[in-house]
Specification:
three-stranded antiparallel β-sheet, 2 domains, Nucleotidyltransferase, domain 5, alpha+beta, globular
Length: 233
């Protein structure tokens, strides 16, 4: 099992451990939930059924979903491996690593040089919808003749992952999710991640810091009380 799949297992273990809390958050034990590792490069989704965790794969048995989104002139949205494979054929309409800019303004991204991986024609400023006076990082999408925020691209990745979860449950909608985020995410980045979940169709979104998930999962593996230091490298 690779490190990325291990991260998803941690989320699932936390889901099992915290199921009562999650059901309280959702407000109904009848609602279906998923654990999602929404990554910069790859993403994964896991579910719990009858107390057992499952990491879900696509029809080709691929668990890892590349966090890449491509838009066609027809309006079709391609997510994952096929989008990544066709990157060179349609660079201006194919997007990756957008999690780096979620919830951030352009000036902040320039200071940390995170915008250096994106072409100037792709990345533009977008007025803050909350009217806080910030110029948010956004992407120009020529195929759609639109400007999309990073969370709108993340929502496309989440839609694919939630479709996997729904298929696992026989087509029933999965409307609730726990999504891990880096510990360094500020309130704006966390809010944008939540918005991505709602844009993907979720009704309830619970964010969990990655080191917190690791600490909680470690507790599940040991019945002996001890002091544990978790380091998020």
């Amino acid at each position: 099992m690779g490190w990325k799949e291990t991260a998803s297992v941690i989320i699932v273990m936390v889901l099992v451990h915290c199921m009562d809390s999650i059901e309280a958050l959702i407000g109904s034990k009848q609602s279906l939930s998923a654990g999602i590792d929404l990554g910069t490069t790859f993403s994964l989704v896991s579910v719990v059924k009858n107390g057992k965790p499952f990491i879900l794969s696509d029809e080709h048995d691929n668990r890892l979903l590349p966090s890449v989104v491509r838009f066609e002139p027809s309006g079709q949205v391609i997510v994952g491996k096929h989008a990544a494979e066709r990157y060179k054929g349609n660079v201006q309409n194919t997007f990756h690593s957008f999690k780096r800019l979620i919830g951030r303004d352009l000036d902040d991204a320039k200071k940390t040089k995170d915008i250096s991986i994106f072409g100037k024609a792709k990345l533009i400023a977008h007025a803050d919808a909350d009217d806080k006076g910030r110029n948010l990082c956004a992407f120009n999408v020529p195929a759609l003749n639109k400007v999309l925020l990073p969370e709108e691209l993340s929502a496309e990745v989440l839609k694919v992952l939630l479709k996997r979860a729904s298929d696992f449950y026989g087509g029933q909608p999965v409307e609730n999710a726990v999504i891990t985020v880096p510990a360094y995410f500020d309130p704006n980045q966390r809010k944008a991640t939540e918005r991505a979940g709602y844009l993907a169709g979720l009704k309830k979104v619970k964010l969990l810091k990655e080191p917190e998930a690791a600490a909680m999962a470690y507790g599940l593996l040991s019945n002996t009380p001890r002091l544990v230091l978790v380091i998020d490298l």
